[in-house]
Specification:
heterodimer; A: Cytochrome C Oxidase, Chain A; 16 helices; about 65% helix; about 0% strand; B: Immunoglobulin-like; Cytochrome Bc1 Complex, Chain D, domain 2; 5-stranded mixed β-sheet; 6 helices; about 20% strand
């Protein structure tokens, strides 16, 4: 058989075995794996905090941990998950690995900068981890002033420094992607022949490059205020505490799209591959990514409806927020239409893509609820908002991340994962997720405020349901960690193109050779042309 | 075991917000079901039957793209207009509203009635009468949230924010701090007691009053010797405060500002921020010497200083409600 041949073939994994060959690598594929390990560590840390939060909330009394500890738990859960998992997860792992291959390039434009980005995330994560171990931070991941600048006695500066440094990692990755996409496309790979995954990452990169510096500036100001008391945010010194919220959300709302746009890119690839059809309305889906990236910068004030922001500003921000709904809806409708008269396979990545569409639809639609001024006054800072953004970030981004990881796992490792275990896990995650977060919509409308350690007892039943769901969800996340590891040694060898997919990354062996392509590929077809893959295909009617 | 699934509805805003909820849920359920049914139907109907199937590519349909952009956008514009309408009414307290001052601090609510009653983590109000809260914080940002009324407003240090509601049903309702404010954030809760008007009157007269806010303000005004400079007839070194409240004041730099609560507060705590035209910046700051409650009492006293022309029987000028909830921004002439 060809097994022996594959084994002896030179690829990026057997190119070197020492620690140095990994830590000093300039290969985008190896750097992607370094990122995968790093974000998995932070996902696990954030997950442990989440588990402790859910167990504490089983009872209305604060009986497992003290209020101080509880506040640190939800803060560190948010920080670990958002800055060190969700933001880098898809772009820095899957994007790093497949984006250059998708456009026929041998690497990113700046391989050394790519490695530097990883080290910046390590250093930033190190600061955050140090703060967590040294005693933690209790400001909420949002760092609202003047609490964070004047009243909190925890490790605010170390944590903020970690986020500051990791921000540069994000900026450099974005910059690298933008230059790569502009300059390194293979002959014939025109803009509108690029896979939608690449479009999504282009849009994401624009946000990373333009938005992240603002959060860096904001962090510097928090630092100055906390250490030198210069009076930017402290009203006693003539400062404005709400100014912080404007600056913070100017980055942090677009950051939501940093998390979800790459997920949408993954879903486009999966839906097309497993229905063997080009994405319906390719141009609309591509443009909608760019539209989301631009509009995302114009809606930050919808986080401030009750903050004492002017009523007229509230009206404008609410109105603009509804414009984001259009490109998001366009994507969902086009994915659904892609299935029409397709050849649909129920492989694990496709199950995750279906899960993504379902959960993102609910997350997106409840976004319309909270964008409505009179409605948001009631539900802002309640569990309704908590449920809404978990539907978008966990239901959206993590479902897509796992879908993408299963989809490209054969390419990345050269091994197949166990399909039945994977399907079972996908089902468990879908059920566990909904049981965890759906009750929180009801809790929120009932008036249960977020970040409450102790709560009135009439909310207990819904909290117990949510904790039960979280326990199921935890198993759903543990299984893939185990079987992915298992597959590295015992998984079936993967062929070059196990799914019959069309991207250039599937034209090279799995795992890919060191320089991806021995010859520069010449692209003669549009994206998702399955007649190039399925030879002697049977027409479906 | 209690399992409420829908919150109590006890203010004039509550039914409005609930109706908006029903619209939002209706639209969402429609689209969720539409997407879900389509996916399941297509996935089953067009499932892969053989490995070398090659479906015919279908690229796009401009008509469909326009339809599924425009129709949802139309539905969302209704969401915008409906929500904006409720919000706009929430931001404009009626002129006859009964005013209560709220001072928030880590981790308690201090509430003061005009008649002098003080409450902690409790607020008694009559049913059927608009109640306007003028709120400030002594430390971090807090948020005054009454789920049964569907109202919430952040309480920010250094400025006054306002909210209002009219209770419709007697009862005891949760008051929550909704903006995370530190260790005992979840302990910063209380109760709103909505009472029949006669019960409220009985409560008012039964409670031990500490003198009305304006009376206490007058005492404080004398203790701090404010009258040495702020002479009533305008002959002092500083401007007369009689009839000041609600008037437009010309500043030394030529601007005009409206003398509202935020202006008075700032002038007491940071007197050199806005100098009245024709006067010298002589006044020392009272930051640190007067508590937030003290400032509120002084403001109420200044409000009570009606211009000599005003005859008894006319109420002192009500604060000109700025639709911007931020009352600290200077308004132009």
């Amino acid at each position: 058989m060809t097994t022996a041949a594959i084994e002896t073939q030179a690829n990026y994994l057997n190119a070197g075995y020492g620690l140095k060959s990994w830590l000093l690598t300039k290969d985008h594929k190896r750097i992607a794996i370094l990122y995968l390990i790093l974000v998995t560590i932070f996902f696990s840390i954030g997950g442990i905090f989440a588990a402790l939060i859910r167990v504490e909330l089983l009872t209305p009394q604060g009986d497992l941990v003290s209020s101080e500890t509880y506040n640190k738990l939800f803060t560190m859960h948010g920080i670990a998950m958002i800055f060190f998992f969700l933001i880098p997860a898809i772009p820095a792992t899957l994007g790093n690995f497949v984006l250059p291959m998708m456009i026929g390039a041998r690497d990113l434009a700046f391989p050394r900068i790519n490695l530097l980005s990883w080290y910046l995330l390590v250093v930033g994560g190190g600061f955050a981890l140090f703060a967590m171990l040294a005693g933690g931070v209790d400001t909420g991941w949002t760092f609202y002033t003047p609490y964070s600048t004047t009243y909190s006695n925890t490790w605010v500066i170390a944590t903020a420094l970690g986020i500051f440094v990791s921000g540069f990692s994000s900026i450099l990755t974005g910059l690298n992607f933008i230059v790569t996409i502009h300059r390194m496309r293979a002959p014939g790979m025109t803009w509108f022949r690029m896979p939608l995954f690449v479009w999504a990452h282009y849009a994401t990169s624009v946000i990373q490059v333009l938005g992240t510096p603002v959060v860096a500036v904001t962090i510097v100001l928090v630092f100055c205020e906390r250490v030198f008391h210069i009076g930017i945010f402290d009203p006693a010194l003539g400062g404005d505490p709400v100014l912080f919220q404007h600056m913070f959300w100017f980055y942090s709302h677009p950051a939501v799209y940093i998390m979800v746009l790459p997920a949408m890119g993954v879903v486009s690839e999966i839906i097309s591959t497993f229905s063997r059809k080009p994405i319906f309305g390719y141009h609309f889906v591509a443009y909608s990514s760019m539209a989301i990236a631009v509009l995302g910068f114009l809606v930050w004030g919808h986080h401030l409806f009750v903050s004492t922001q002017s009523v007229y500003a509230g009206l404008v921000f609410s109105f603009l927020s509804y414009f984001v709904a259009v490109p998001s809806a366009v994507k969902v409708f086009n994915w659904t239409a892609t299935l029409y008269k397709g050849s649909i396979s129920f492989a694990t990545p496709m199950l995750y893509a279906f899960g993504f569409i379902g959960l993102f639809t609910i997350g997106g639609l409840t976004g319309l609820f909270v964008a409505s001024l009179g409605f948001d006054v009631h539900v802002t800072d309640t569990y309704f908002v908590v449920a809404h953004f978990h539907y978008v970030m966990v239901g959206g981004t993590i479902m897509a991340f796992l879908g993408g990881l299963h989809f490209w796992w054969p390419k990345i490792t050269g091994r197949m994962y166990p399909e039945n275990w994977a399907k079972l896990s996908a089902a468990i995650i879908f059920v566990g997720f909904n049981l965890t977060f759906f009750p929180q919509f009801i809790l929120g409308y009932l008036g249960m405020p977020r970040r409450y350690h102790v709560y009135p007892e009439e909310f207990q039943v819904l909290h117990v349901l949510s904790t039960a769901g979280a326990s199921i969800l935890a198993f759903g996340y543990l299984f893939p960690m185990i079987y992915f590891m298992w597959s590295l040694w015992y998984g079936e060898r993967a062929p070059a193109n196990p799914w019959g997919a069309t991207g250039l990354e599937w034209t090279v062996p799995s795992p890919p050779p060191i320089h991806n392509f021995d010859e520069v590929p010449v692209v003669t077809h549009e994206a998702y042309d399955y007649s190039t893959v399925v030879k002697e295909g049977v027409e479906v009617v | 075991m209690k399992l409420p699934l829908f919150p109590e509805s006890a203010s004039t805003f509550a039914p409005d917000v609930d109706h908006l909820l029903f619209y939002l849920v209706g639209v969402s359920v429609f689209f969720t079901v539409l997407i879900f049914v389509s996916i399941v139907y297509f996935a089953v109907r067009y499932r892969r039957r053989s490995d070398n199937e090659l479906p015919k590519p279908i690229h796009a349909s401009l008509a469909l793209e326009i339809a599924w952009s425009v129709i949802p956008f139309g539905l969302t514009i209704v969401m915008f207009g409906w929500g904006a309408n409720i919000f706009f009414r929430e931001s404009r307290p009626p002129k006859n509203a009964m005013q209560v001052y709220v001072v928030a601090k880590q981790w308690m609510w201090k509430l003061q009635h005009m008649e002098g009653q003080r409450e902690i983590n409790e607020l008694h109000i009559p049913v059927g009468r608009p109640v306007k809260l003028v709120m400030t914080s002594e430390d971090a940002i807090h948020s005054f949230f009454v789920p049964a009324f569907r109202t919430k407003q952040d309480v920010v240090p250094g400025r006054y924010s306002t909210t209002w509601f009219t209770a419709t049903k007697p009862g005891k309702y949760h008051l929550f701090c909704a903006e995370y404010c530190g260790t005992k954030h979840s302990g910063m809760t209380g109760w709103i007691y909505a009472m029949e008007p006669q019960d409220y009157q009985a409560w008012l007269s039964g409670g031990r009053a500490f003198g009305s806010l304006a009376e206490n303000g007058e005492k404080l005004f004398q203790d701090l010797a404010c009258g040495n400079c702020h002479k009533a007839d305008g002959s002092g070194r500083c401007p007369s405060l009689v009839g000041l409240f609600g008037r437009s004041v010309q500043l030394a730099d030529g601007r005009f500002v409206s003398a509202d609560e935020a202006y008075l507060r700032e002038s007491i705590l940071r007197p050199d921020a806005k100098i009245v035209a024709g006067y010298q910046p002589l006044m020392p700051t009272f930051q640190g010497q007067v508590s937030e409650e003290g400032v509120l009492e002084l403001i109420e006293y200044i409000k009570s200083l009606a211009p000599p022309a005003a005859v008894a029987g006319t109420t002192p000028a009500e604060i000109n409600v700025n639709p911007d909830r931020v009352t600290s921004s200077p308004s132009n002439p």
